[in-house]
Amino acid sequence: MNTSIRFRLQMMKLATLAVLATICAVAAGTSPPAPLAGSAAVPARQDFITLADNGHAHYVIRAGAADAVTRHAAAELGDYLSRISTARFTVVEEDTGDLPAIVVGGQGAVQHCGNGRDAELGDDGFVICQWSGNLIISGNTPRGTLFGVDWWLDRELGVKWLAPDAEEVPVTRTLRVSSRTISEKPRFAYREVLSAEGEDKPFRAHNLLNGESHGTSFRPSPPGIDMWDRRWLARGGDFDFWSLVPRSRYAAAHPDWFGGGQLAMMSPDVRRVMAQEIVQRLQALNALSPIWFGIHDMDWGWDMDAASRAFADAHGGAPSAAFLDMVTDVASRVRQSIPDARFAMPAYHWGFMPPEGMTVPDDVLVYPMTIQVDYSTALNEGRNVPLGQGIRRWNEIAKHVLVWDHIVNFGGYLQPTPNLYPIGRSIAWLATLPHVEGYFGEGDWQSRGGEFSSLRVWLVARQLWSPSDDVRGLVRQYCDAYYGAAGQDIVRYIDRMHEAARTTGDVLAEQTPVDAPMYTYEFVRRSDQDFDSAERAVAGDSTKLARVRQTRMSLDFVILALRSHYAERAQRDGWDMDIAARRARLSSALAAAHVTKYRQSGDLSALRDLLDVAWREGPGTAPSLVAKLKEADWREIGALKLNLYDSARIVADSEAVRGGAVSLGGDSQAWGVQLKFDKLPREGNWDLFVEVRTPDAALVPPAAAIRVGAYPPMTRRIDTPVSTLSGTAYGWLAAPGGPFSYSTDHERGVYVHGLGFAKGQRFLIDRFVAVRHDAATAATSAMLNGNAP
């Protein structure tokens, strides 16, 4: 007999028994118990339910439906209840009548719980209640039922899924739970963390994350948890401009379509071609349910064409106006062929701020991307206030908003990054915006083992379900469970790094180099003591000790990378940094945690190169470029303060002024080395110069050049042939577009990369020098004037 039919028959049988019990009670002159609202069933009235006692189970488990997800939920419930109680909870196919059942899911089950309403629970909500002696855990969907089981095991029974390889299961001989009726629904309908840990499918299912987009959607799921929301940016459902209007097909005949780095968005021909391409792709995809088809810009800037600029100017100067107008038009064209088509567009970089005088159609979802975020504060606080204003405005003009947040330091996956508490405050604030219905947190998806990576997944998942939960209390709860007796030491360290960022006022951007001001001597010394205490606390527990040492990687990395900064003070204070032992501990922890990247595109060989550099401290020798200037009129900005991308890595170089330089592949077209303007002095206007050399200058092709540019716009740059430089020695190049001034806006900066080098050839960047603009020397003025674009 079909499982759902059996379940309905069982419910009818129990309802009949309940009615008979009521008749008997009336005949006896007593009043029957009041039924739950909306249900004819008789609820239990005790304050708790005893599930097992002294190794004996008082309930059986029964799946109320035959689908794989519901059956998996029932089996998982039986497994964990057995492990908690040491009793054997049997999963049965049919009602045996011997024991009451914990009924997992099933058609109509929700209605038997007084607070259960299908529309109110949505796809992920659930109810838990007693009904005629049985216990019901059910959602409207198999996913809701599975989440009900996992929520109950976690919040009510104390099971904790803390990392892909870490779960805590309590053990008790008498297993009791509250008898109250529970109705739960997440605040955010879409919830996902894109990180190596967040992509672990059992881990995120246990923590009630439902979204599956990007690379994760290309990998199969076990049938029992194959219940993901794949409507947004999943496999086959998201493409950039140049895929939807292919350059290879149209650029030769229509170069004006691709000017400025994006598209001529106001062009009717561009829109027509894009709509035709999308129709073909949607028809080929043949999705079983409507998706939010993604149309996204190229991941760089945009020098707008005249028509797009005019349209933007008419709508508050926001370039997003042209993008939104194009998507609205393209969507209308596509729906002539596919009436239920829906679309998703990012608000990113140049397109982040919403336009004035426009609204977003209901069949378009907007996802603001927080690439400009300062991790040290919430999305609506401090330097993030403009960012928060943009999100709030999108919420006002769009019905469907999903926030793509950035939650990791892409410039240092291992570095201490104090954004745990700000993440919590951000989610609590986003929950107040009624049209923000989803959250996607982009973490370290290139490598496992990043700084507090599992904690971030767990914390974000918790708050996306219930944003009002206290973030500090959640962090303490996690640390106590994951680190055991060392939990209080780790919490103290977490508090310390948040305070360090607040005290120094650092900009903690999505790319923050290792030489950050918050990593002071006092911070690393006291944090090292925190970890010493943590290790002592769990010295007898090899599992917890390994977790502490994995977490200690962050601090060990900073101390090793900046050891020359701390050496003099450490010697004075009698602190033995024990560099050899510390590096050995770091290496062991990296291997145990399966770390493969220490920053975006920076593998472990690049990490070894960085840690091998013996940096020279002290004032050094002023470059000839500034020999006649006062000390206050120039500033050295070393390799450790630069943002590194693509093939860039820091290496030892005896000819560099401090003993180390950035090595960059000359054949890469990426802006591999960038200087952000928050590294400039906070007062004044400054001209910028970069010191470069090519070790194999005689071997590079004649056309090889080094490009120095400043953005925006994308076209401001100077290309200097390697043949005109000083052989293999260091020489200076000017950055165009100055003078520059201090800014925390990471949408602006200076970059360096190579042109025309042979594959495998590299060049070196020692440092930048900032020269006060009104103190320019004849030498600096000549460079700037001679190289003016």
TrEMBL record:
Entry keyword annotation includes Signal: yes
Gene Ontology BP terms: mRNA transport; xylan catabolic process
Domain of life (superkingdom): Bacteria
Sorted UniProt keywords: Hydrolase, Signal
InterPro entries attached to this UniProt entry: DUF4838 (IPR032287), Glyco_hydro_67_aGlcAse_N (IPR005154), Hex-like_dom2 (IPR029018), TAP_C_dom (IPR005637)
Residue ranges occupied by any TAP-C domain in the UniProt entry: 273-326
PROSITE patterns membership: TAP_C
Pfam entry (one): DUF4838
Alphabetized Gene3D superfamilies for the sequence: Chitobiase/beta-hexosaminidase domain 2-like (3.30.379.10)
Signal peptide: 1-27
Gene Ontology MF terms: alpha-glucuronidase activity
Name this polypeptide is given: TAP-C domain-containing protein
Annotated organism of origin: Paraburkholderia dioscoreae
